[in-house]
Each structure stands twice: as C-alpha cells, then as structure tokens.
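$ run holo --ligand "zinc ion" --emit tokens
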Amino acid sequence: MKFRVIFTLDYEIHGNGHGSPRKLMVEPTERMLALFDRYGARLTVMADVAEILRFERHLDETGRDLFDYQAIRNQLRKAVRSGHDVQLHLHPSYYGSRFVGGHLEQNFAEYDLARLPPERLDQIVSQGKTWLEDLLRAEEPGYSCIAFRAANWSMNPAQGIVKALVDNGISIDTSVFKYGTRNGMVSFDYSGAHSDLVPWPVKSDDVCRRDPQSRLFEFPIYCERRPIWHFLTANRVYRAVVGRLNPLPKEDFEPSPPASAGNGAGAWRITGRLKRLRDLVLGRHAWKLDFNQCSGRQLIAAVERIRKRHGQAASDLPIVLIGHSKIFTGVNERSLEPFLGFLAGAGDSFAFGTFRDFALERFASEPV
Ligand SMILES: [Zn+2]
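-- output --
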C-alpha cells in the first residue's frame, strides 16, 4: 500500500473581504505551482467560487477587472492543464457582499454555511460545481467537480449540506478535522469524528459519524492533538499577525458573566481568563497538517507517525493536508521544500495524489 498525499489549497482572499486577489491568490499560487512541478508534486486548489463569482460580478457591473477575475480563470485552467486538480470551496458571505471602500463588505447573514436553508445550499453548490466544470472541461474534457470544503469547516448541522452535495453528484467532503471545535461565528465539535485519517461514508445528519449506505465520503484533514508549543513556527506567527490585521466582527469570543456574579463580574472574568490560559498552556490542541503553517521538519515527523500507525492497511490511504495561498511566503517556500523532497524520495511509501485516485466504495465496506 501507499499513502497518497493530497495537498489542498484554500484559494481565497482574507475572510473579511479585504486584500488583493493578485497578491493573495494568483501570485503565491503561481510560485507554489512552480515549486510543486519541480518535485512532481500535485496541488488540489480548493477554489472559493462564491468570491470568484463576486469578482466576476464586479467586472460586469463596472467594466473594471479590479479583482483579477480573468487571471484567476487562467490560473485554474493552467493548473488542470499541468496535472494539478481544482475542487470546490464556498464562502457564501460573498454572494450578498457590497463593494464599499475598496473591499467586499461581507453579508454576515450567510456567513455560516451549514446553517443556510436547504434550497439555498442546493442552489450555491449546483452553481459552484457548474462554474468549475464549464471552465475546466474546456481544458480537460474528463474533468469533474467531485470534492468540497465548507467555509470555516462548518459542516454541522449536516442535513442540508450533505443532501445538497449528494444531490449535485459531489462524492467527497474534506472539511472535518478530528478534535476541531469552534464556538463563535460558526459552531461545531469534531472531537468525535470517526477517524483522523481514514475516509468514511457520512451519516446524513452528522458528518462525524459513519453510515455505510451514504454516497458522500468524508476525507478528513489530518489532525493530531499537540501541546501549544508545536504551534510556534514562524509561518504560524505570520498567519496570526495577518489574521489580527484583517479581523472579523465578534471574532474574540469571551463569555459574559452570569447575572448571579453581580458585583463580582470583574473577578469572574479574571478567573475565566486564567482558566483559559491554563487550558491553553497545559492542554492539547487540534493541530492540522497545514503545509503553510507547520515547519518542514514537523510535516516529515507527522507523516512518519502516520506510516507507523497505518502502514499495515490493506490498500492505499489518503493523507489530506491543508494550506492557504494567502500565507504562502518566501519563508514558507523554504520550509516546505524539504518536505516535498522527502516525499519525492520515499516513493515506496508515499505518492503525490488527488481525490480522483480513490475508488470510494471500499471505504464503505472495509472495516477501519
Ligand atoms: Zn476558506
């Protein structure tokens, strides 16, 4: 057996609608494709079609290609032409966004994908898949949009989105990462996910659980629980700074004191903060296999751990990594290179792969 390493790249500007698509999408992805080509590696671009369609609308309405819509189309076509893959990512808050002060002010009523009405989900998934297939079949007639990632990984409650994906012929979701939890502008708890690595057919009302009859398969982003100091890489600090400079409303979520705290509300807050600090330092946290934020050494060590744990599997398994074009810096380029070199030289165990490499039925029947 081999591990097929799938590099998924979220292709988008900042979540608050700020930033230049040329600087955050087109240019870094160009450098990344060149780097991957040097190692015979394959990239899977998860294109946020919601924002790309909004960029197109701006061009239609103003006659100005301020958001580089044409360059984005050309880049996606070039990626497919040169053996990489492009699949669907959606940030629905772009659809109703308004162009104000040089950027796209998000429609926060549609921020949480999983909580959109079923008919709305069906509409946007269908539109996104059709757009990709119309664009990319001109390049490669056999192209099909088969995989999806939700905005902010938000897949639960699952009823609406799972049905929309299945009804539109999308057979893979790659949003879940085991141990991941959020409680804010989106809310989910993936700590009970079926696996950190092995795909499973998802239950229609809960993406974390398995249903052998399902036609949608979860390919989880590989994740481990690690102590906080594993998160201290140069690239991750860069990402944190960029995030601070491009904030979302209500992003800093701090619970309010209960009425019973009365005059002790200040003390209640301080106790809460100390407890969170203790959990941060002493606890273990969801550490996604992120090829823009982990160091090359961390990535190599992680796939070695995976080989030890899963190397006896009967047939090929995916290792799904996540990255973001907007944080692909020169530092990151240098830290990623040893990992690509390691994989290229370990062909007995690892191969560069895409979602198209797998016959999905075996994940329904095989015990895992
Ligand atoms: Zn995204």
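-- notes --
The CA atoms of residues 119 and 301 lie 44 Å apart.
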